[in-house]
Amino acid sequence: MLAAAAAGRTVLAPNAELAAALFEAIEQAHRDAGEEVWPTPQVRDFSGWLRERHAQRQLLDSKSPRVLSEVEERELWRMVIDAAEPGRDLLDPAGAARAARRARRTLREYAIPLQALAAGSSEEVDAFLGWNRDFEHRCRELDCISADALLIREAAPHGSLHWIDSPHWYPAARHWLERNGQALPPPELACSDLSLCRTPSPAEELAAMADWARRELALKGFRAWICVPDLNRRRAEVVDALDGALAPHRFGLGEPGMAPYAVAGGTPLAGYASVRAALDLLDASIGTVSFARFSALLRSPELQASEADAGGTARLDVLLRRHALNEADLTGWLDLSERVARVENVAAPAALQRLRAAQRLLDFPGARHCSEWVSIWLNALQAAAWSFRARWSSIEYQAAERLQELLATLAGADALFGPQTRAAAQRILRRAARDTPFQQQTGVPAVWVSGQLLDPWLNYDAVWVCGCSDERWPPPMAPVALLPIGLQRQFGVIPAGADSQLRMAADLQCRWQKRAHCCVFSFADSTENGPGSASPLLPKGARVMTATNSTPQPLWQAMYDAAPAAESFWDELAPSLAANEHAGGVATLRAQSRCPFRGFAEARLRARALEQPTPGFNERERGELVHHALEYVWSQLRSSTALQALHPDAQWQLLDTAACRALEIVCKRRNPGERWRGRERLRLQNLLGKWLDLERARAPFEVEALEQSDRLARFAGLDFEVRIDRIDRLADGARVLLDYKTGAASPDWRGERPENPQLPIYALLRPDGLIAVAYAKVNAADPGFVVESARPKIFPRNRPTKLEGMASFAQLVDVWSQRLERIAAGFAAGRAEVAPTPQACQSCDLHELCRVPAALEEADEPDE
To answer: To 5 degrees, how large is the angle CA 377–CA 380–CA 382?
Structure first.
């Protein structure tokens, strides 16, 4: 092979993976020989070589039909099946298109005449024949041919042609090569170390394989070929296992760096960062976009010029969450973002201007040819998602280059696609990026991992083949869909028959033992389908190999094991509250009482869970609506006497006005739309109507104060902002404090560390004549009052409470004062120990920050 390449002759391989391996082997041989310059090896995969030959003929004959690209051929089959009568009832037209394309390719590869299909007529065969006729008709209209027709048109080449002798040539290609070229026999070695590796599970099989490669790589110049037959399904698991053993540095926060292995076949192009960013940007310009998608797009690293830019964008994202709807179009999101930046007095990040480039796509309505769309897309990408190409890694750059090649292919397919709307054209682009595998160029790896059961042809130091259980080796039958199985067996289609699969497996097994001095066959004892055992086809007398480390590890385990021991430092005291620090409101004392660390984190670190915009009004907004509506209702009524005298029609009018005013206030910040406003208006009317019925059953009262927000509560020398929802005065002048709750409520103000000291704080502000505090549960499921009261019958079904053992309500208020002073003093002194009350962790969003023990989080009983 080296001699043929040095003479400038073409060497053909049956597939792209083998062609790449041969090319790299020749390059490596020149490097090993100390050469600095050598002729580029003319190593080609057969299908690619046929395309090149046809392109050369087109230069001499302009009337030669054009060859459909991979993208065009896939899309043409989809069009044919979508337009055909049988295709209209298919649940998966895309799957049918793949099956029809494979069936047509099989006919050409095995030289099966179409006439032979008539004998095996069936519904599937008839459907395929119809689709195939339509496909050929469309090809003639377009003056195109499919890639599977190239061999028929290929004449004998000029000059010497070499091809590697491999069992993977299809019969039609082999017959043509035998007539027109010279076979290169593979180099052979004698296998001196034949091993069998048995592991408990498929995951441990991959771990054993990776650990074996790690040990062997310690030998200088070691090269291995590994076959994982189900690589396409388990690619992520294979990569994780190999990274854990061979490239643990990839789990760090620095550059991923190179690894001493490569995995063949590639992954969908759409999964690479530079391509994904481009597709997401284009998709965002069509229809409505959810907040989650817009947030990810706005914060994407591809749009940030610097760390400062990224920080500004993140701050705007936090602010947007209080104003954003669940979804909007791109223009709506950009306008809202700029408006929020102005209202909140923050600088609009540069990422917004870059996203305006995608908005300019809206300036091109109607249907256009793909060549026009490609130009428009590239301009938008250069101005936005691809603004900072200089920062890309090699992999990101290669992926973007491959996407541009794909765009060039679409630009040359105007005749096939015709005019398309932008949405339709972008769907074609996304399908093409999803269906196009891409593998970055990594040079010559020491370990090559293949997903194909093939003869590697080259010599290696070792060969490892996974999945050699009795269930999977030889491979089970996998006949080609839409073609009669009997016909496939008649013409030698290997996957169609158990005998042919057995012969192929035996031949491959023999060839693997000639490709390396060390050959390992592995299998797992247990699989998804039940117990497994070694295939009886495996060589007899193989040495049983003991896996030294067959335990699959999590991704972080390799770095964790190698990390130095961390020094533990117990720090529970933050700096004391400075004079210029804001103490906050009731929420600060509530958080400090539940857990000192939570009080410190929420009030002083401003640690908050990010809001997530929802359809309609969220829980916080619904609570605000109830507060605003009840404030208006009682500002009009002012007493239970007026409530009792209220006519039903007047009540309906009052509640409707209250609901409308509340909606107007809340929607100034975030307006979910007319439909949601209408739903919430009706809900408020019904909810407040039920609530007023409950208030009618109370003892007579007057409303003394509503929504008092101009007061400060002072504890431990700190001022805390307070807003009292409502103060009622009874007939004898006694007072009652109310706080509205729209969800569940319980007497959570009791104990030395109350879950919520809100009502005690209110009581300390207005202690004169106070005889009761209560939560007013304004909800449809269980409306009522949760009360601490020294007197009965103030509320429906109200009895005096125990006042926590105090003789009077005034004494209870004194006890509350001492508790609150102690809680506030701890906050002022910087107490921040992780010491939650039994129920505190259930409503906390700071678990990742405080790292509270899981057992404490999951405790069901207070004494646990």
So the answer is: 105
Calculate what percentage of the chain has a pLDDT beyond 90: 70
Nearby residues of 386 by Cβ (< 8 Å), 6 or more positions away = 274, 277, 278, 302, 400
Q: Is the pLDDT of residue 110 over 90?
A: yes
pLDDT tens column, 140-169: 999 999 999 999 888 877 778 999 999 999
Angle at 503 between CA 500 and CA 505, to 5 degrees: 105
As given in the structure block, the two tokens for residue 244 are 């854990």
C-alpha distance from residue 134 to each of 83, 320, 630 (Å): 9, 52, 70
| CA distance linking residue 348 with residue 752, whole number of Å | 47
Q: Give the dihedral of Cα atoms 53, 59, 61, 63; nearest 10 deg.
A: 100
C-alpha–C-alpha distance, residues 450 and 435, integer Å? 19
Looking up tokens 């319980």 gives 746
Residue of 439, 433, 446 whose CA lies nearest to 265: 439
DSSP per position, 558-588: HHHHHSPPPPP----BPPPPPTTS---BHHH
Are 792 and 734 a contacting pair, CB within 8 Å?
no
DSSP letters for 333-348: HHHHHHHHHHHTT-PP
Instruction: Extract the tokens encoding 567.
Output: 């020094």
Single out the residue of 59, 74, 44 nearest to residue 146, CA to CA.
74
Q: What is the tens place of the pLDDT at every residue in 556-612?
A: 666 677 778 888 888 889 999 998 888 999 999 999 999 999 999 999 999 988 888
Residue 48 pLDDT greater than 90, yes or no: yes
Going by C-alpha positions, the residue among 535, 510, 503, 513 that lies closest to residue 522 is 535
Q: What SS3 class is residue 37?
A: coil
SS (H, E, C) 228-261: CCCHHHHHHHHHHHHHHHHCHHHHCCCCCCCCCE
Dist CA 202 CA 609 (whole Å):
39
Helical axes 422-435 vs 70-83, angle rounded to 10°: 120
Q: How far apart are CA 370 and CA 421, in angstroms?
A: 9
- What DSSP string describes 378-440? HHHHHHTTTTTGGG--HHHHHHHHHHHHHHHHHHT-HHHH-SEEHHHHHHHHHHHHHHSEE--
Over residues 54-98, the pLDDT tens digits come to: 999 888 888 889 999 999 999 999 999 988 876 667 778 889 999
Residue type, 392: W
Judge whether 708 and 723 are in contact, CB under 8 Å.
Answer: yes
Residue 135 CA neighbour count, 13 Å, CB half: 26
Which pLDDT belongs to residue 863?
A: 47
The model's pTM: 0.83
Terminal C-alpha separation, the chain = 74
